[in-house]
Amino acid sequence: MTFATLALVVTIGLLGPLLALPRRWHLPVVLGELTAGVVFGATGFGVLDATDETFTFLADMGFALVMFAAGTHVPVRDPAVRGALGSGLLRAAVVGVAAAVGGWAVAQVFGIGHAAVYAVLMASSSAAMVLPIIDQLGLTGPPVLSLTAQVAIADTACVVALPLVIDPAHAVRAGIGAVVVGLCAVVMFLLLRYLYDTGAQRRTHEVSEDRKFTVELRISLVMVFALCGVASAMHVSIMLGGFAAGLAVAGVGEPRRVAKQVFAISEGLLAPLFFVWLGARLNLRELGEHPQFVLLGLTLGFGAVLVHCVTRALGQPLAYGALAAAQIGVPVAAVTVGEQLAVLVPGEGSAIMLAALCTIVVASIAAGRLAARKLEPHPDTPSV
Known about the structure:
Blueprint: H1 3-12, H2 15-20, H3 29-40, H4 53-72, H5 79-83, H6 85-110, H7 115-123, H8 127-137, H9 142-166, H10 171-197, H11 200-211, H12 215-233, H13 238-252, H14 256-281, H15 285-289, H16 292-308, H17 318-324, H18 329-341, H19 348-375
C-alpha cells in the first residue's frame, strides 16, 4: 500500500459523511464508505486491492476500534437503563427465540446450513447505531429505556455468540478464548476502577490535559490492542477483544476528552479505512452470478425486522421494534471473520451486507416516523 493509495482511500471515504449529511434520512456514515469501497474495489474499478497486507492490517486496526466504540456505547452505568433490564431482557429473549426459528427456516429454504449464523444475525441489534438515533431524536420515557436495555443486551450477546456459531468445528476453542478475553476485560475494568477510586485517574487526566501528553488516549489504545492481541493468540476474532475493551471502559466511564480523541483517530482515519476495505473486498458481481443470494439478503434483512417486531405482543410499538432491528457491527464481523475462515460460500458475504442495509433502511424510516410523531402537536394544545 502506498501513500497515494492511502490518500485515495481517505478521499473516497468522504462519501460517507456526504450521504449522511441530510439529517432527515438518518443514514449511517458507514453506508457511503462501504459504497465507495464497492465502487473502487473488486466489484467496480478494481483500483483497491483488499488483499494487500498493509491495507488489511490497517483495516484490522479500524475494525478493533469500531468494535471498541460499539462497546463504549453500551450504557452499563446508566441506573435508569439498569432498572429497565428486566423488560429489555425479556424482549431480547423473545427476539432471540423468533430469530432461532427464522434462522433455521432460512437455512432450510436456501440449503446453505448456516442456521445458527443466520439466527445470530437476525437477533442482533447495533447499540452504536440505535443509541445515537435515540439521542438525536430526544426520545425519552419507559419505552425508550426498555429499548435501550434490549439493544444493549442483544448487541453484547450476539457479539459473544458470533465467534461460537460461525466456526462450529472450533466452538470449544472459541468459547475458551472468549472466556479468557472476558476475564482480561474484567481485570482491566478492576484496574481502571482502582485508578478512579484512588484519584490516580483524575491526577493523570489533569497532568495530561495541562501538558498535552494524551496519556489516557494511549492507555485506551493499549487496552484495545492488548485485548485484540489476546484474542488473536486464543484464535478468537479481534471483534471480541475490541468490544470487551469498550465494555471495560464503559463500566468505569470514558472521559469526554478521551472519547473525542478516540473518536478522532477512529472516525477520522481507521474506521473509514476499514469500511472502504470491506467494501473493496466484497464482490457484488457474485450476486449476479448467484441471484439466489439477492433473495437471501432480502430475506435475512426483512426477516430481522420481522423478528424484532414480534415484541409488539409485549406492548412495544412497531416503530421501536423496527428501530431495534438496525444492525451493522455483527454483520460486518460475520463477513470479515467468515471470509477470513473461508466458511462463507461465494455470494453469502454480499447477501449478509445486503441484509444489514435493509435493516438500516427500515430503521431510518422508523426513526423518521418517530421524529414526525414527536413534532405533532398535542390534541389539547391550543392553536395560535
